[in-house]
Design goal:
With about 230 residues, the chain is α+β, with helices and mostly antiparallel strands. It folds into two domains: about 70 residues, no CATH class; about 140 residues, VC0802-like (2-Layer Sandwich), CATH 3.30.2130. The chain has nine helices and six strands; from the N terminus they run H-H-H-H-H-E-H-E-E-H-E-H-E-E-H. A six-stranded antiparallel beta sheet has the order 2-3-1-4-6-5. The radius of gyration is 23 Å and the shape is elongated.
Length: about 230
């Protein structure tokens, strides 16, 4: 009987440990996409209990006590709001208008086609980007330049094309390569304020947000305020 009770106890303990590990991994994943919550803690706006309630409600994770315990165990080094704000302050921010995003079916032939059709008409290094992804290959280019090459691309290969968009580009110091969560932090600054991000292109020190034209000025304002507070 005692052996049964002891075995039962350790079985329950093992289940609890697995559940706690599951909660911790889900909380960590949630914070990867919502690093602004750490910023709210740093500023004294919320405490761990309030943060746990918010995570429980938004991510449907049960057990606020387990969430609080997970928050206390998760390393803060990757979520330092202060360091992120300092990086934003030292970054250069640019905007552009009149942007086309073209997405083609994923194939080597379409990738070659994009390279070929842009080779002869693009004069500036920064005027276009070719992006390869699992679900398609894309071209980000100015509306005026796209008007010169659009007729060269077979319509049957086009998944989507959207014109008249804008770009907000954050050019940060190279140290961002070592900063886990920086892109998520910058993205959440926009998404948490109701700005829809059409596409994100992140490479080396640049983060480029492709936005609806009506959102570009609002996005710029958000980052300029952040720079002034950094």
């Amino acid at each position: 009987m005692n052996r049964f009770k002891s075995g039962h106890y350790y079985s329950v303990l093992a289940i609890c440990m697995r559940n706690n590990n599951s909660v911790a991994s889900r909380v960590r994943e949630y914070l990867d996409h919502n690093p602004d919550l750490w910023k709210a803690v740093d500023m004294g706006i919320i405490n761990y209990s309030a943060m746990a309630r918010a995570i429980s409600s938004d991510a449907d994770i049960q057990g606020e006590d387990a969430i609080v315990a997970a928050l206390k165990r998760i390393p803060r080094s990757g979520y330092s709001g202060r360091r992120f704000r300092e990086l934003i302050k030292s970054s250069t921010i640019e905007t552009r208008s009149g942007i086309t995003v073209l997405i083609l079916r994923p194939s080597t032939e379409n990738l070659r086609m994009l390279i070929n059709v842009t080779r002869n008409i693009v004069e500036s290094y920064s005027e276009y980007r070719i992006i390869q992804a699992s679900q398609g290959c894309g071209l980000v280019i100015g509306d005026d330049l796209f008007s010169k090459i659009g007729q060269l691309i077979p319509k049957r290969e086009i998944i989507d094309v959207e014109q008249g968009l804008g770009e907000l580009i954050i050019i940060s110091p190279p140290v961002i390569k070592e900063m886990k969560g920086y892109v998520s932090y910058a993205s959440s600054m926009l998404s948490n304020r109701g700005i829809n991000i059409v596409q994100i292109v992140s490479f080396y020190t640049d983060i480029t947000f492709i936005l609806r034209p009506d959102d570009v000025l609002n996005a710029l304002r958000i980052f300029m305020i952040e720079k002034s507070l950094g």
